[in-house]
Write a structure and sequence with these properties.
single chain, alpha/beta, Rossmann fold, 4-stranded antiparallel sheet, 25% strand, binds adenosine-5'-triphosphate, ABC_transporter-like_ATP-bd, ATP hydrolysis activity, transport
Length: 216
């Protein structure tokens, strides 16, 4: 269970706070969706949750444990918007083993299977995969680290309709085992999967009106 209590972020370079008193709770095996326009602070919030940026104020907890950035780096796995731009391995296997050379063949195969990539060659170049396969590989890179919380920045951006549907199906599967927090400027693709839905506007988190939540 992840809990944020009045988390704010106000870097010196910004005249106004980028995030203002953000509070929410995300239970295990649930998906939270945060929708907001460009510049509302979505990526900054994910960076805080991934332990890449320290909040100026407020606290983050996992159950009863207060989380510092170093712990968040272990706990959370962040999949960037356009993650394919961040691949550095020459092969799929290399990409999965970056930072984890000890990973065995069985774990690699199991993780690729969990994202629907068991049919691809582990020797294929990540850049030679299709757009949808690259997104799946980026998810696998995070899943193999066994995070408690999976953070996704605009996971369907730039995918065509069929790849989008496949990715949405995959997120529905992943939700059975992981806590997911997704940020997006467009709720329409993912709203039906979300257990919680919030709007981020000028750094403030608002609960979406009930009538806009998916019907259970
Ligand atoms: N370190 C920083 N110093 C000053 N301003 C910053 C800093 N980091 C982010 N900002 C500003 O904070 C605002 C929120 O940025 P952020 O990237 O989090 O928004 P976003 O909702 O993810 O936008 P997009 O959907 O376009 O990616 C922007 O106006 C950005 O320029």
């Amino acid at each position: 269970m992840l809990t944020l209590d009045r988390v704010s972020y106000h870097p010196a370079a910004s005249a106004t706070p980028i995030l203002k008193q953000i509070s929410f709770t995300l239970a295990p095996k649930k998906m939270g969706l945060i929708v907001g326009p460009s510049g509302s602070g979505k990526s900054t919030l994910l960076e805080i949750l991934a332990g890449l940026v320290s909040p100026s104020k407020g606290t983050l907890h996992w159950r009863d444990q207060e989380l510092q950035p170093e712990t968040l780096q272990q706990l959370a796995g962040l999949v960037f918007q356009f993650p394919e731009r961040h691949f550095c391995g020459h092969t799929v296997l290399e990409e999965l083993r970056i930072g984890h050379p000890e990973l065995g063949a069985e774990q690699v195969a199991k993780t690729l299977e969990s994202v629907g990539l068991s049919a691809i060659s582990q020797q294929a170049a990540p850049h030679a995969l299709s757009g949808g396969q690259q997104r799946r590989l980026a998810l696998a890179v995070q899943l193999i680290r066994q995070p408690y919380l999976l953070l996704l920045d605009e996971p369907t951006a730039g995918l065509d309709w069929s790849m989008k549907q496949q990715l949405i199906g995959l997120l529905a599967e992943l939700k059975k085992d992981w806590s997911l927090l997704v940020v997006s400027h467009d709720a329409s693709d993912l709203e039906h999967l979300a257990d919680y839905c919030w709007t981020l506007q000028n750094g403030e988190l608002l609960t979406k009106p009930l009538e806009m939540l998916p019907v259970a």
